[in-house]
Amino acid sequence: MNRRARTALAALLACCLLFGGAVACGGKKKEKAGEEATPTSSAEKQKFAKTRFVANAGLAAGATYQWIIKPFKSGSFKKGADGRTVALVKAGLAGTFAYNRLKAATENAKGDPTLTKALAPLTAGIDSLKNLSTKIRKGDASDADVNSFGNVINGVKDAGKSAGAEVKDKTPSYSDIQKG
Known about the structure:
Blueprint: H1 3-24, E1 31-32, E2 35-36, H2 42-73, H3 84-109, H4 113-119, H5 123-127, H6 132-138, H7 143-162, H8 174-179
Antiparallel strand pairs: 1-2
Helix pairs in contact: 2-3, 2-7, 3-6
């Protein structure tokens, strides 16, 4: 057999083994206490609801503080400030990231009845942040707009604390913010 034929045969055999292995792995899942143990089962969601909520809310809080509130307080968003454009772009991206993480935290809270009740009054405030990041990025945000981010974050932190899920700021990297 020549070299090309052996290489083609080896490649075909490898593909068959990989495909056969993938098909063989797709059997039935084990059941535990009458419930299927999948990462999306309601038992799993409830088990990790507070943990996921704390992680997502912490990232939102950290991004808001680091990239929106802190530069705002230092005057980076004012017309004529050095680095204003960069600060506004970063704040806009951070706003989008924070909104995304807050929505994820809201979804996580649905797995825990106490968190659901605690966050219910805050959903309108979270939804109001949706277009605010664009406003910040364009430089059209007012003091009240920037402060609304801080108010919503503080409300989420307070709701988490009252439900036994204390949220601490976790500052994401700028590359995380860029990814969304």
